[in-house]
Description:
Elements: E1 2-7, H1 19-22, H2 27-41, E2 44-49, H3 53-63, E3 69-73, H4 77-80, H5 82-91, E4 95-99, E5 121-124, H6 129-146
Helix pairs in contact: 2-6, 3-5
Amino acid sequence: MRILILNGPNLNLLGARDKSHYGDKTLDDVLTDVKDTAGRLGVDIDHFQSNHEGKLIDYIQQESGNSDGIVINGGALTHYGLSVKDALTDAKLPVVEIHISNIHSREKYRQHSVVEYLAVGQIAGLGWRGYSLALESIVEHIRSIQS
Length: 147
């Protein structure tokens, strides 16, 4: 099983961004934890981060054909990235949406997600640990529909 882990704009700056919302872990720290979780689950992951919407879309289109699911933290694209949502829809793969901060308790514009309607689940507000929970959730979902 192969799961894509996607991160949108500014997530490359984890560890340097507002620590009250995003904590002090870097993206590499988060990915180390996710790789450990993937190993425990016996799945492969492929990570991609970009600050450019089109590059995320290209990656989804190129890699979805040989993948089983997607975990995405779209960053700000969560709230308005309709082209990312369309690419995820066209990929026809299960999606779990992840947010480090609780988008539902933040500014009004952050409380809406264009991805939530197609996602099998959303994890928000559990910090960097949410990534491994998202991976566990999508793997469990995929295994349940395959059996």
